[in-house]
Amino acid sequence: MPATPPATTVMLTFDDGPDPRSTDALLDALLAAGQRATFFVLGEHAARHPGLLLRLHAAGMWLGNHTYTHPHLTRLPPERVWAEIDRTQRTLLALTGVAPTVFRPPYGETSPRIRTIARSLGLTETLWATDTRDWDGADADVIVGRAATTVEPGAIVLMHDGGYRSTVQALPRVLRELAARGLETGPVPGALPGPPTGSPRVASVVTD
Ligand SMILES: [Zn+2]
Predict the structure, then answer these.
(1) Class of 9-185 per CATH?
(2) How many angstroms does the Cα of residue 161 sit away from the middle of ligand 1?
(3) CB–CB of 198/55 below 8 Å?
């Protein structure tokens, strides 16, 4: 069982990136606040935007595996599930020198078989407790409410690095509101600890 996260920690997660429309802005907001998040990236997007992926990695953000092409895994045969996850592991390892240790299935669709495949590739599955529904048109005020104002300490919060303006607009306010509540960000269970929280390295700008 993963250790219970401290009651003063909220785990912010951003799925589907990296994305030239949102990654830089999300990362800038996190760095400005001295906070970190987990980015569950798509292997296909990492391969297409390696500069953005490397910027996340260099800034000390936690990187997770969100498959290569974002399929409905429960509809795929085991060998294709394995290939989606393994290809993403190899892509991220080749780019950053580190293989992820956490995995999030697209749409949260999972099964014991999928979890077993992920485990065989060294990955702990991570879903979420709080869905901001930024993917479903939630505006910045709603996202701030769900991710910060009313969030339960210890919660894993789902947001997206998918080019949504609302998420980009909300994040600086989310981070201010969390700080006002005495909450800080932390890694999802199973993520490699990385550098100490609150001291992310300043990322150099890499042109994609
Ligand atoms: Zn996704």
Answers:
(1) alpha beta
(2) 9
(3) no
Residue 115: CB atoms within 10 A of its CB come to: 15
pLDDT in tens, 167-188: 999 999 999 999 999 999 999 9
What is the β-pairing status of strands 184-185 and 62-65? unpaired
Q: Are 126 and 64 in contact (CB under 8 A)?
A: yes
Concatenating the DSSP letter of every residue in 22-36 gives THHHHHHHHHHHT--
**What percent of the chain shows pLDDT beyond 90?**
88
Q: Residue 181: what residue type? A: R
Q: Which two tokens stand for residue 65?
A: 């595996």
Can you tell me the distance from the alpha carbon of 65 to that of 89, in angstroms, rounded to the nearest whole number?
Answer: 7
Q: Using the mean position of ligand 1's atoms as its centre, give its distance from the Cα of residue 41 in Å.
A: 8
Convert 153-177 to b/e letters by CB count within 10 Å (16 or more is b). Answer: ebbbbbbbbbebebbbbbbbbbbeb
Which residue is catalytic, options 45, 57, 66, 160?
A: 160
At residue 110, what are phi and psi to the nearest 5 degrees?
-140, 180
Instruction: For residues 173 and 119, give the distance between their C-alpha atoms in angstroms, rounded to a whole number.
Output: 36
Mutual orientation of helices 78-96 and 50-58 as an angle, nearest 10°?
70
Residues with CB under 5 A from ligand 1 (ion): 15-16, 106
**3-class secondary-structure state, position 72:** coil
Three-class secondary structure of residue 60 per DSSP? coil
